[in-house]
Amino acid sequence: MTISIYQRLFEGWPEPRLLVDKNSAGLYCVHKCNRAGSHYFSQSEQSLEGQVIEKLIDAGSYAHVLRAFEVCWSSKMPVSVQLIPAVKGEIRLRSFFFNPLMDGEKVVAIDVAARLPAIDDENLRRERDDAMSIFASVFDASDVGILVTDHHRRIVRVNDTFCKTFGWQPIDLVGFEFTKLIPESEHDVARKRHDDFMGNMFVEKSRELKIKRGDETLANVIATSGIIELSGNRKFRISTVVDISYLKKIEKDLRKSKEIADAASHAKSTFLANMSHELRTPLNAIIGFSDLMIAGTLGQIENKNYREYLGDIKFSALHLLDIINDVLDMSKIEAGQMKIFPQRTDVEPIVDEAVRLMRARATEAGVMLKTEIASGLPAVNIDQRMIRQVLLNLLSNAVKFSTGRGSVMVKAGRDAEGFVSISVIDQGIGIPEEKLSDVMLPFGQVQDPRVNAGQGTGLGLPLARTMVELHGGSLNISSKLDVGTTVSFTLPPA
After folding, report:
1. Is the pTM of this model over 0.70?
2. Boundaries of domain holding 414
3. DSSP letter for each residue of 329-394
4. Tens digit of pLDDT for each residue in 388-434?
5. Which of 72, 182, 360, 464 has CB 3.0 to 4.6 Å from 98, enough for a Cys bridge?
6. Number of H helices and number of E strands within the chain?
7. Which of 70, 98, 114 is the last residue of a domain?
8. Rounded to whole angstroms, how far apart are CA atoms 203 and 222?
9. Which of 317, 334, 351 is where one domain is finished?
10. Are the C-beta atoms of 94 and 130 separated by less than 8 Å?
11. Do 444 and 458 form a contact (C-beta atoms < 8 A)?
């Protein structure tokens, strides 16, 4: 009967109440909690049982509360402490008695009971002073500006960090309505938000706004607020205020820089578009008329030197056209405007086509072109124009740097991951190992006096790699001086 009476007394206690003991690891855990305690911690009574006290207490006050438990347990004497539960979005400060429960000379548990609400002015003042003394240390030590307002919208406390950051004195703010810090055009909105927040209505707890400094200039800040609730239904709004004016300036500068960069990019695109039209048109005419004159369509040119000059003119025009096309393609890639139009394609025909187009140049350079295509290769989804250009770029480099030095082999097979792998292998002059990364950069070149012909723009390999990557593949290069170079790229099967 006695146990039943005490159990009903515990469960019916009008204020939060816990029975706390130690587990095998020496941690303080909830053995039992009454209904008011369940409401205080915003959890069900069942879920609270067995929980470690650390998980239920606000991180800022946990060390203080743990010390109170230790003192109560070791001294076997009651302890009074202020406790704040870990409840998201608000602060519920209450005063609790920790009373040790004894079994002979041994403490077996601690009865944690909230103090009954104060009913006289003296107790109210004491409770208020206790609450303020707890937060005073937080206020004074914080590197973040903190502002406290009451339900009358008055500023009741402001810390030194806030005053130093924004150029105020406490006497200028305490006792005044918080709108003294807000631009006048936003007073009505700010008052409504404050009242809604104090009334527990749904209001964004963190927001970006502007506040006045002591010199009347405006600062961009992020304010994060919470509610502290004391006895007698007294509520205070606590706001942390972080100055982000410098960050906003950086953001503004970055935005301006981006606008300048966008304008420059637009100007570049316009220039390249004009260059495409203005240069390609006369080049096509030069190439076309050169062909006519070399073929003798309107009559043979008898002078041998002139015929050689015409060949040089045509070669130079074609070379210049290739450079223009490479520059335009690289510009499209950098602008993210290079699009692919894939279609299901067999590998062997596109390799054979690229080799056929390059054979005349290889023959002229004294280089033999060979192919080795594995049987049973799967089809690939590719933009045929792009992959043809990749192969031509790689073959052109291989032939150029292998003049009179053996053969160039194009091999196609499958790698360990099932991707189609295509390699262009030459026996040319090779590239120093420390320069391999340079040749993969736009306009990156390795000047070699052994190469008589012009070495191009240095865009061939970077373009090839980017075009392969647009297809979901990868491109790698390996080389050894005076032995040769191998460039391999992969394409996923269709």
Report:
1. no
2. 343-491
3. HHHHHHTT------EEE-HHHHHHHHHHHHHHHHHHTT-EEEEEE-TTPPPEEE-HHHHHHHHHHH
4. 888 988 898 888 888 777 889 999 999 888 899 999 999 888 888 87
5. 72
6. 14, 18
7. 114
8. 15
9. 334
10. no
11. yes
